[in-house]
Write a structure and sequence with these properties.
The chain is α/β, with parallel strands linked by helices. It has two domains: 5-51 and 164-336, Rossmann fold (3-Layer(aba) Sandwich); 53-163, Rossmann fold, CATH 3.40.50. The chain has helices at 24-29, 53-66, 81-93, 112-119, 135-151, 166-182, 197-206, 223-238, 271-284, 293-305, 331-336, and strands at 20-22, 37-41, 71-76, 96-101, 122-125, 156-158, 188-193, 212-216, 256-258, 315-319. Strands 1-2-10-7-8-9 form a six-stranded mixed sheet. It has a four-stranded parallel sheet with strand order 5-4-3-6, with helices on both faces. Strand 8, helix 8 and strand 9 (256-258) form a beta-alpha-beta unit. Helix 2 (53-66) crosses helix 6 and helix 6 (166-182) crosses helix 8. The longest helix is centred in the middle third of the chain and has 17 residues, at 135-151.
């Protein structure tokens, strides 16, 4: 694989390439031979506390500046990693930033909210009675914020939840190419699926849906159906062949997504997530979060135990960051339970 012009249209914001590290002690716990289980440390991308969103923002911010925009606008849940890193990117580039947060304003900021307030974007709290907005309700609120800002003379750049546009997903096309250059012998990459953009970009970069094992964390109700079309779109944008994979009912390749481990809802604390986080911490010193990477590790552990992932495969766990959420209100008592 080689870089193509579309993949050069980025602003360097992240510490890249991120390292690969063996997880031999955790692998041995699963009956895997040494050298079979690894982690790619995309939690170490640096910007605003690190995480996978920094790769996407390299392309999204370049696109925003090319379009003459002066304000980055996005949104997510109260403990969104994406809104945190978007605010950091805006500060790095001297842009304004507006974030829509799907929550009432807490009395005491914790976790990502504390970092959001430190970074200083305009925060639009969805103050209301009743249940929180659904995924597409947040997307509509992002569009409303852009309309308001434009009416006030700003030039807003709208980013979907998680930065999961085709432009943003180019960051993980590049990550796939980066991974090939580091070690081309992995059989499968395990990743948390929130909005699905990271999964789609990786598939486009690696060229095969069967190489990416997504673990649904409950953020987007239709995430599995969205990944394959997005991967094809991103591959076309990057000038690459559309990814192959096992065919679905319509004959088109389908994404590999495990839906069994997010619990009753997005961000819900589950016993199996706590077990996975403890195993990673106590066997490898690897710290995971309760919303994304902890659930993804559950998918990896159960995938190997149930032979959805062959025990003799070379498996890479993509650490997408998210540690600040562990310090959010409510999780402390759960970890100590």
């Amino acid at each position: 694989m080689s870089a193509v012009p579309q993949l050069d249209r980025r602003i360097a914001l992240a510490h890249l390439p991120t390292p690969l590290e063996p997880l031999d002690r955790l692998g041995a716990h699963l009956g895997m031979a040494p050298g079979r289980l690894w982690v790619k440390r995309d939690d170490l991308t640096g910007l605003g506390g690190g995480g996978n969103k920094a790769r996407k923002l390299e392309y999204l911010c370049a696109d925003a500046l090319a379009r003459g925009c002066d304000t980055l606008v996005t949104g997510g849940g109260r403990q969104s990693n994406h809104v945190r890193i978007t605010a950091a990117a805006a500060n790095r580039l001297g842009l304004h930033c507006t974030i829509v947060v799907n929550s009432v304003r807490p009395d005491e900021p914790t976790g990502n909210v504390l970092l959001d307030e430190l970074l200083g974007p305009e925060i639009v709290w969805i103050d209301r009675n009743g249940p929180e907005l659904d995924y597409y309700g947040i997307e509509a609120a992002i569009a409303d914020a852009c309309t308001r800002l434009a009416a006030g003379g700003r030039h807003p750049y709208a980013m979907p939840i998680g930065g999961a546009s085709a432009v943003g997903a180019l960051g993980y096309v590049r990550a796939g190419i980066e991974l090939w250059s580091q070690d081309p012998s992995f059989d499968v990459v395990v990743v948390a699926d929130g909005s699905g953009g990271t999964h789609a970009g990786l598939v486009a970069g690696l060229g095969d849906h069967r190489m990416v094992y997504g673990v649904d964390v409950g953020a987007r109700p239709d995430v599995a159906a969205r990944i394959a079309p997005k991967a094809a779109e991103v591959a076309r944008l990057a000038g690459l062949a559309e990814p192959t994979g096992d065919p679905g009912p319509d004959g088109l390749p389908v994404a590999v997504v495990d839906h069994d481990h997010f619990g009753p809802d997005y961000g819900a604390a589950t016993d199996e997530c706590l077990e996975a986080m403890r195993l990673a911490a106590r066997l490898e010193g690897l710290l995971l979060d309760p919303v994304y990477t902890g659930k993804a590790m559950v998918g990896l552990l159960e995938g190997v135990r149930r032979r959805r992932i062959p025990v003799d495969a070379r498996v890479l766990f993509l650490h997408t960051g998210g540690l600040p959420a562990l310090f959010a209100e409510g999780y402390g008592a759960w970890v100590r339970s």
